[in-house]
Amino acid sequence: MPTNPAFAHYAVLTAMLAPAFFLTATASLLMSANNRLSRIIDRLRVVLMELEETVDSEYRAVLEKRILIQRRRSLLILRGSQLLYVAISCFVGTSLTVAGDAFVGYRFGAAPTVLAVLGVLAMFAASLFLAREATLAVAAVNEEMDHRHAIARMRKRAEPPRETDSN
Q: pTM here?
């Protein structure tokens, strides 16, 4: 840090920029995770309504599997969100220790660096949870498309051939 007191506050502000950028990135990921959780909840409500209305035991089993997948997805989003909140806390802690360090004569030692590293690790772990959830989401959509496509093919085969007018 600069020894000139007139420039010390610039060094502190500069050191606080990196955590601020990480805070912005983390907040964006958290917003995305919350949007994904909303979609999961909406989809789960639809599947639960279908489950209530169906009497076909085979289809009920399919719906039960879909409910389990939505549960897994929501748990992954929850864990990812929790880690993102930890990351935010670490980045705020980094900024506070950087700013406070200048006032107490740089006695915090490695605390700002440790908090920053913990924040980045939490963000990394959260990204892994969110990536796993995205994989499950795509698998769920593919399964539903395949199932609906199979139903459409069976209905097409069961339909009597249409008579065409040959005039």
A: 0.79
